[in-house]
Amino acid sequence: MQPVATVLLRAMIAILLALLLVAQVFMIPGVAADTAARNPALAYLEVPGIIGGVLFLVLIEVVLVCVFVLLSLVRADRIFSTHAFRYVDIIIAMMLASAVLLIASFIVLLITGAVNPSILILGVLGVVVSLSLALLVGVMRGLLRKALQLEQDLSEVV
Predict the structure, then answer these.
(1) What string of DSSP letters covers 29-82?
(2) How far is Cα 88 from Cα 24, in angstroms, rounded to an integer?
């Protein structure tokens, strides 16, 4: 089952990456232009909004690429290696960066008065999810380190 699951997950990640790229190229600029047209007083936030939205999706794409590589390591039965830690560390860094980006976006929206309660709730939710996932992946990193150590100890015994 594991080979089938890793192949399916890798295929789903590839599809998700393609959809995120479409969102970066078409959806974010379109929504930003529409929002600027409906709120001319906030039109100056159009370009920073596009940059922030695209950057946020880039962070997600980097995480997905790292998960793709980790799945490749699982498939090759090389997940318990020091090579895997690099990708886990990148995932943690991207989660923390996304929380920082969301907080910075909130500050800009609060300063300009362009935030409503639903956006505020979504932003807080995004920060909490980003930080929670970073902590979860950090715990998983510790488990990976322990598994690597146990595998090395076992290979010494054999």
Answers:
(1) HHHHHHHHHH-GGGGGGHHHHHHHHHHHHHHHHHHHHHHHHHHHHHHTT--SST
(2) 25
- The 10s digit of each residue's pLDDT in 107-157 is 988 888 877 888 889 889 999 999 999 999 999 999 989 988 888 887 777
Q: How far apart are CA 65 and CA 87, in angstroms?
A: 9
Span 68-101, pLDDT tens digits:
999 999 888 888 888 899 999 999 999 999 999 9
CA gyration radius, the chain: 20
Is the pTM higher than 0.85? yes
75 touches 6 (CB < 8 A): yes
CA–CA dist 18, 25 (Å, integer): 11
Calpha distance 117→111 (Å, rounded): 15
